[in-house]
Design brief:
CATH topology of chain A: Porin
Helix content of chain B: 55-70%
Strand order of the largest sheet of chain A: 3-4-5-6-7-8-9-11-12-13-14-15-16-17-18-19
Strand content of chain B: under 5%
CATH architecture of the largest domain in chain B: Orthogonal Bundle
Shape of chain B: globular
Distance between the termini of chain B: 67 Å
Number of strands of chain A: 19
CATH class of chain A: Mainly Beta
Structural class of chain B: mainly alpha
CATH superfamily of the largest domain in chain B: Cytochrome c-like domain
Largest sheet of chain A: 16 strands, antiparallel, barrel
Oligomer: heterodimer
CATH architecture of chain A: Beta Barrel
Distance between the termini of chain A: 29 Å
Number of helices of chain B: 10
CATH class of the largest domain in chain B: Mainly Alpha
Mean pLDDT of chain B: 87
Structural class of chain A: mainly beta
């Protein structure tokens, strides 16, 4: 079975290489590159991180069009994960050390008509053997310029809060841009940090005034009924399968942007208030309330030869278990021990790219919160013995792009703390560092 | 799974159909000022006064030079890597009238000096600019580009231009990838790295 899979992967790799070499015109989200005729580096420091021009292109609705092309593109991620210590007694470290087709995606990218354009992704997950819609952002934009007044305005319909954002400090397109889907991940995370991805549908309006002030306000709801295609492929039947929200839930974003010389800087805030049913299959119960406030910043220094970029975000989440706490848990929902909890996530990274070809990134991540043994219980390997959600670590990544549409990465993640502790975090003798991961990735877009 | 895929098909087909049928290529009006603000400004800055040294300043550039370059990009006569990466595509949709209008617009924008640098370097650069380096066969830049580096006809304005951009141009003239100005290809070979740096620093400060 494994040999067969390897053969498939080798054949796929050969096919991808063939296509990449054959299509000399292919560039980064290559459908956009083909439509605009621009090189990857016009919009990306290194995909998916955007340059100032890339942000302009996205804000103006992906509509800049110089050529009539078929707006389709694809990507393949082939990876290998090496977890430092695997203990198969308590947990099945399936696919560890296997070369796997991690993800294969098809993109619709570009202008649809007039001021309307889209970025839509359909992904096959090679680990879960399952496919579904991925990040999708359909927008319509206008650009008003008169004398010295310049503002871009638009609306977006999308399926992941912050997917509409153009800075890479926010969660949807934040670092790490790719990571193992085989390795262990910490239990706790805020809801805005991927907790609603591809499960909601939202509409937002935005303005970018004088390239200086960006404001966006949107409302998100569960992607059901007429919006159900925004979560196609999600498990909506199993209790606990998807997040289900009650009514419309506000999302906001405010940012200050400045550009001078080769530098650009953004300082901003974003957030979300979400009323969530504890069990997605019981949409008649009371709801728990998550309130996320976040601050973020991004700095970029970009010249043709050198690029230094840094992003940071801090997210504070208040969790009000007004449904799950008094009831002791509803259906397959959480069973918190406290009426209220909180989480704080901090992420920061700095990257250096030489000629957009050789890159290195150092990143720090941390999530802390108050103890809640009801949420973070002592399960071997995946649990927390002390009921704390705390996780802390460092990521070091090296990237090499032999071609603009091929990224080869080596990524190492060190866990200084995992699910509450550095040593014996699960109560069964496992240390945070046992989850350290060496991850090798070949990322191909065409 | 099969059902899921089937239910997606009409949407995919609809999107593809929309794209193929309704999508017009950009057709820019012959309004240089509007196009400059809506598109060019994204890289070349407000009124052509770019912030990033990756992109040349276009404010107060000579119209003849702008026309020659835009046509050069459009017809692929100017082919260094950066031109291929950015301007070939952008210029591909410009007709002659639009190019003329853009040239009118940018040439009428106010000139602004760039940042100054080390005084000794600037003095050295000024010397090369005004007198050339006779024993190395470097002609005085001023003889073609004007005494104030303000440009003359198809010889571009260099005053106030980003130092990094100027150095990049000398490099691509040297390596032959920008081959649309034979005079500069010859001159670039006579300049060594220190001289190029000095003259570029001087020009940026003007």
């Amino acid at each position: 079975m494994v040999t067969q899979m390897r053969n498939v992967v080798v054949a796929l790799l050969a096919l991808v290489f063939g296509m990449v070499l054959f299509c000399s015109e292919a560039r980064a989200v290559p459908a956009f590159a083909r439509q605009t005729g621009l090189a990857c580096v016009a919009c990306h420091v290194s995909f998916p991180e955007l340059t100032p021009f890339g942000r302009f292109f996205k804000l103006t609705g992906y509509t800049l069009s110089n050529y009539n092309t078929i707006p389709l593109a694809a990507m393949v991620q082939v990876s290998q994960t090496n977890t430092r210590s695997i203990n198969n007694t308590y947990y099945d470290f399936a696919r560890n050390q296997d070369i796997v087709l991690q993800q294969a995606s098809v993109f619709y990218g570009g202008r649809i008509a007039g001021p309307v354009g889209a970025f839509a992704q359909w992904t096959y997950d090679g680990i879960a053997h399952h496919s579904g819609i991925d990040n999708t952002d359909i927008r319509a934009a206008g650009h008003f310029t008169q004398n010295d007044v310049d503002f871009i305005y638009g609306i977006t319909v999308n399926n992941n809060p912050t997917v509409s954002d153009v800075w890479n400090s926010t969660p949807a397109f934040g670092f790490p841009y790719a990571s193992s889907s085989v390795s262990l991940t910490p239990t706790a995370g805020t809801i805005i940090d991927g907790g609603l991805a591809q499960q909601v549908a939202g509409a937002a309006a935005y303005v970018f005034w004088q390239r200086s002030i960006y404001a966006e306000f949107g409302l998100y709801r569960t992607a059901d009924q007429m919006f159900s295609f925004f979560r196609t492929g999600q498990d909506t039947i199993t209790p606990g399968g998807v997040a289900r929200l009650n009514g419309t839930n506000p999302y906001w974003r405010l940012a200050y942007n400045a550009e001078w010389g080769p530098h650009s800087l953004m300082v901003g805030t974003y957030g979300l208030i979400a009323n969530k049913y504890p069990d997605n299959t019981i949409p008649v119960s009371p709801t728990d309330k998550f309130t996320d406030y976040a601050l973020d910043a991004q700095y970029q220094f970009i010249t043709l030869t050198h690029a230094i970029t840094a992003q940071a975000t801090w997210i504070h989440e208040k969790q009000n278990w007004s449904a799950s706490y008094p009831s002791g848990g509803i259906g397959a929902g959480p069973t918190p021990s406290n009426p209220n909890d909180h989480l704080d996530t901090f992420k920061a990274k700095v990257s250096y790219y030489y000629q957009r070809k050789y890159g290195s990134t150092l990143a720090f991540f941390q999530t802390t919160g108050n103890p809640d043994p009801g949420l973070y219980g002592p399960v071997p390997v995946t649990g927390s013995a002390n009921g704390l959600p705390d996780t802390r670590g460092v990521i070091l990544e090296f990237d090499y792009l032999p071609l603009p549409q091929v990224k080869l990465s080596v990524q190492y993640s060190w866990f200084l703390k995992f699910n509450g502790a550095r040593f014996n975090y699960d109560g069964s003798g496992r240390n945070a560092s046992d989850n350290n991961t060496l991850y090798l990735l070949g990322w191909f877009v065409f | 799974m099969k059902k899921l895929l089937t239910s997606r098909m009409p949407l995919a087909a609809l999107l593809a159909a929309c794209a193929l049928i309704l999508r017009p290529a950009s057709a820019w009006a012959e309004d240089g000022a509007r196009l400059a603000a809506q598109l060019c400004a994204a890289c070349h800055g407000v009124h052509g006064h770019s912030e990033s040294p990756m992109f040349p300043r276009l404010n107060a550039q000579t119209p003849e030079y702008l026309i020659a370059q835009l046509k050069g990009f459009r017809e692929h006569a100017r082919g260094e890597t950066d031109a291929r990466s950015y301007m070939w595509a952008i210029a591909s949709q410009l007709d002659d009238a639009t190019i003329q209008s853009l040239a009118d617009y940018f040439s009428h924008q106010e000139a602004m000096p760039g940042a100054a640098g080390d005084a000794a370097l600037l003095a050295n650069g000024q010397e090369i600019f005004e007198r050339g380096v006779p024993d190395k066969g470097v002609p005085a830049c001023a003889s073609c580009h004007g005494p104030q580096a303000q440009g003359a006809g198809t010889f571009p304005r260099l005053a106030g231009q980003h130092q990094e951009y100027l150095l990049r141009q000398i490099e691509v003239f040297k390596n032959g990838t920008r081959a649309n100005a034979p005079v500069m290809s010859a001159v670039a070979h006579t300049l060594n790295a220190d001289q190029a740096k000095a003259v570029a620093a001087y020009l940026q400060s003007r």
